[in-house]
Amino acid sequence: DGGITQSPKYLFRKEGQNVTLSCEQNLNHDAMYWYRQDPGQGLRLIYYSQIVNDFQKGDIAEGYSVSREKKESFPLTVTSAQKNPTAFYLCASSLAGVLGEQFFGPGTRLTVL
Amino acid sequence: EDQVTQSPEALRLQEGESSSLNCSYTVSGLRGLFWYRQDPGKGPEFLFTLYSAGEEKEKERLKATLTKKESFLHITAPKPEDSATYLCAVQATSGNTPLVFGKGTRLSVIA
Questions:
Q1: Before B44, cis peptide (omega within 30)?
Q2: Does the beta-carbon distance from A105 to B104 stay under 8 Å?
Q3: Is B33 exposed, middle or buried (0-12, 13-18, 19+ CB in 10 A)?
Q4: A19 pLDDT more than 70
Q5: B107 to chain A nearest CA, in Å?
Q6: In what helix (H) or strand (E) does residue B59 lie, and over which residues does it extend?
Q7: Which residue in A21, A109, B28, B88 is deepest, having the highest Cβ count within 10 Å?
Q8: Residue B22 and residue B6: Cα distance in Å, rounded?
Q9: Is the distance from CB of B44 to CB of A104 less than 8 angstroms?
Q10: Is the minimum CB–CB distance between A54 and chain B shorter than 8 Å?
Q11: Contacts of residue A43 in chain B, CB cutoff 8 Å?
Q12: What's the mean pLDDT in A82-92?
């Protein structure tokens, strides 16, 4: 089955720690995205990547980092510089670069203890 | 700046009571408008893409329409399983920019 997988589903982090969220897709999509969703809020774009080894900052990139070494994978690292990291994180991908509909993974809920 | 405003924030319907959700947008040329459904604790599920004013798309009890300033998601005779948050997003023709999302409408359908 083609789709987008995110792991883990739940993640707990102590203050001051970096954590990495995994996102993998087997849809052969070119573009991948990371969003943050807070209660009652829409999706806010953190980073996106249109091709391997290239990525752009979104609206709220501070305190986050990404890499795109393979077409299928787009991991997100939440660094200790992110002051309020507790949120629901969603990964998405789209076929034709940033054009057209995006398809989402199941999400990772990160909680800072 | 591209913007999407969805209303109402929350909507409570009785089963079978039809209604509409609104998505107003301002964008420097519309490439596409997208509707998604999101269940609690899950990723959004793609529903429709609309490209030009006057276009309509249907899926089961849902119908999406588009004008030059807004889109409506009409829900006919809803069932409890239609309860979810519905998200609207737009993409501009200018540049190579990702989608801009609204905050969503939280729909509850009561049996």
A1: no
A2: no
A3: buried
A4: yes
A5: 13
A6: strand B56-59
A7: B88
A8: 6
A9: yes
A10: no
A11: 44, 87, 89, 101
A12: 94
Contacts of B90 (CB under 8 A, 6+ apart): B2, B4, B25, B27, B30, B32, B33, B34, B99, B100
- The answer to whether residue A30 scores a pLDDT higher than 80 is yes
Contact between B43 and A102 using a beta-carbon 8 Å cutoff: no
pLDDT of B2 reads 87
A78 close to A34: Cβ distance less than 8 angstroms: no
Token digits for A4? Answer: 């987008």
Query: Which residues of B are less than 8 Å from A39 in CB distance?
Result: none
> CB A100 to CB B49 under 8 A?
yes
Determine the average pLDDT of the residues in B31-39: 95
CB–CB of B45 and A104 under 8 A? yes
Asked if A107's CB is within 8 angstroms of B98's CB, the reply is no
At residue A100, the pLDDT reads 75
